[in-house]
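just leaving the lab so this will be short. below you get a single protein, a line of residues and a line of whole numbers that encode the local backbone shape. id like you to explain what the token line says about the fold, in plain words if possible. thanks a lot i owe you, the record is right below:

…
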Amino acid sequence: MTYQEDKLLFDKKTQFLLVALDGVIKETDKNLFSWDIGTSIYDAHPFFEIIKNFIEDATHEEVTYNFPCIHLEEGAIEKILDITIKVSLQEVVIILFDYTVKYQEVNKIAQQKNQSILKAKELKLKNKYLLEKEKFKNSFIANINHEIRTPLTGILGFVEVLQKTQLNFEQEELTRIIKRQSKHLNAIIDDMLDISKIETGNLKIIKERFRFTKLIEGFKETYTALAKEKGIKFETYIDPNIQEYLIGDRTRIFQILNNVLTNAFKFTEEGIIKLSVSKNYQRSNKLSISFKIEDTGFGIQKEDLTNIFDRFTRYNNDKSISGTGLGLAIVKNLIDLLHGDIKVSSIPEKGTTFDIKLPFNFEVRKTTPEKKKKQYKLPDTKKRYRILAVEDEESTQFLIMKILIGQGNFFIDVAINGKDAINYLERRNYDLVLMDLQLKDQDGYKITSMIRKNYGDKVISEVPIIGFTARATESERDKCLKSGMDDFIAKPFEQEDFIYKIVKQIAKKAAS
């Protein structure tokens, strides 16, 4: 634009008025409003009545008054103005600046800001609702976990007892099916809990030194046997340049590989499954390892690859193949927590390949022989040891009695609440107490605390106590030990582990 064009554009947005002290308009350019010369400014708009006060207060010095964002109308004309009024003893000068567009834009921004604030408040309320909903969901899952694990303990326990009796071929097969399906149900519960922990940020990554090569050898042994049952092949390869001992979260790495391998075996009916482990790179004491799991199974359709890691997603609709659709969602979340990466490629009817990269650390140190699980024996195998089971579930009571009496070395008493437990302990000497953590009258922690603190008699106060619960978490285990218990058994349990822990505590107490 030229200077004259700029000036003209500016002139069209301003109007100057020269007004006599009696309010009569002496001069005006009529750029904005068509007020005539000789008319009163007070008739133009009520706003200008304010000038009368300014004239009364006038002095020898000119005084300027500024008024922003004033709405003036004349017929159909409506404008938003900044108004400057200069008052002296001789005359009044009024300057109108048309900022209608500017103020409309500002008002629009203000409205958008208000809407943004309202949306933010709405979002905050929604988030509060979602958090409360999530809290309820996690509480529900935790309670369901406990309620399911308790009867599941009885099912698995009695199946193991039944398997040790004289069964014909058909009965053996039926018990195997019951045990397999029960373990599958237990795995589903574990998956639900893991997803819940991941979503709430309660799943902790624990880095420790472990024998990496043994972890892979364990997969080789387990899945070679499974492959033989299915009539397929399973091959493993591990890069010889990978250190024997690495630092990482062994439990989560096992969980990742186990879930992907389990999926591969589910969807492969013939051919081969391969697990290849190789080193990507090594810098200082850090290295990256690649895990490739290949199968010749059903494969995954291209459109399903994008949501394969979503919860409750199954990429095969064969209902005969069991699964919750949580396994790969857990895998993806765990890999993200470990700062790793996972990619999947597949050809329908040809097979699927999972590529997983995970970071590790390692220490250069002399290899020490791996500690073997210490074996314990009862001090006197001819003696019968008395055990108090504090348990209010009838089926679990019967299971404990069946397992321990079958060993031939134990007497069992059962208390169904804390009051009975204390009465038993005061009347008899016990070699060990199995303490359920969730009883109807009071929890096992309080009963344990009473036993440890309220008795001067060491036979009572120092009796070995093993916590017994369906809440199979690390935090629950830590809580047991802090409350004064000597060990922890999670429901459902393997009978071998159950007996081992009981014998261990009795043997340790006898040796002290």
The longest strand covers residues 63-74. The two ends are 100 Å apart (CA to CA).
